[in-house]
Amino acid sequence: IGGGSQADLESKMIDVSKASQVSGNKINYTVTITNISGEASVDVTSIVDRLSFTYPCDQGGATTNYTGSGWVSSVTGDFPANTPKTVATSLSFTYSVDNTIEGTYLNTIEVAAAGESGKSAISSVSNNIGRGGCITCPTGWPFTDYKGNLAVTQGPHTTNPNSSHGRVEAVDIAPRGYVYNVNDGQKIIATHRGTVSFNMSLTGYGNLAVVTSDGGYSTYYAHLNSFDGSIRSGDLVEAGRVLGIMGNIGNSTGTHLHYEFRPPTGNANYECLAGHKLKLESVNGQSYIPKTIPVACYGSGACNISVP
Predict the structure, then answer these.
(1) Domains of the chain (ranges plus CATH)?
(2) pTM for this prediction
């Protein structure tokens, strides 16, 4: 059943254009409705302005009418309300959308004129908010196929004289009592998407796997007994990809995983997503491992965190 060609659906009386400019976490929009009918004026009967959002890495999204959304904090300025308007030569509207998180924002406006049933003028613009690329924060524990009874044995920023985490955003996780055989094969996995590299020469870290996100931050997985042989340095890995086997290589007093966050060089206040600092401990209720690690804890008893 035919519905007419695209040209048959386009308005012959009005034209609409939408331009945008990103400023930080804000998008500034300008909408212009132009009379192309050749008549002195055109009556606009409908203006529908839609905003849709897609999370980074195609993690889904939604469409909103600008209210009640977790990814739009406010709309300011002269928004093109859906009310009848008369257009002599042209009408322009300028407004801004303040965004609270990173992702892709697609804005579409559709305008209809009196006397043109089933026809409209449409314009869309798309903008990326944030650093671009496929950026996600670390998620979950860096383990799969759990072997034994794992526990946190050292938290971030510890002050114990025996600690190695004085200024490090890292956590140590080990089998309780170190009763573990590396041949049991406790698998270590990436906690986010990124480019993997393997290093055996960084002082103290032993066999080290590093996953660097598109946003520039890295996670370190140290003291591995062995690396996964099916991937190579430079490969792109997704969250959940096995990197190697937990071990006791390097500056290590027993089999464990040293799991560390590192921001891009020179950016101590880096946020993996807008408003989300890259921290192991809970910051304003945000933490990127499933349990809140006590800052400066040392020893499984003091940390008192079982994994998972």
Answers:
(1) 6-129 (2.60.40.3880), 143-307 (2.70.70.10)
(2) 0.59
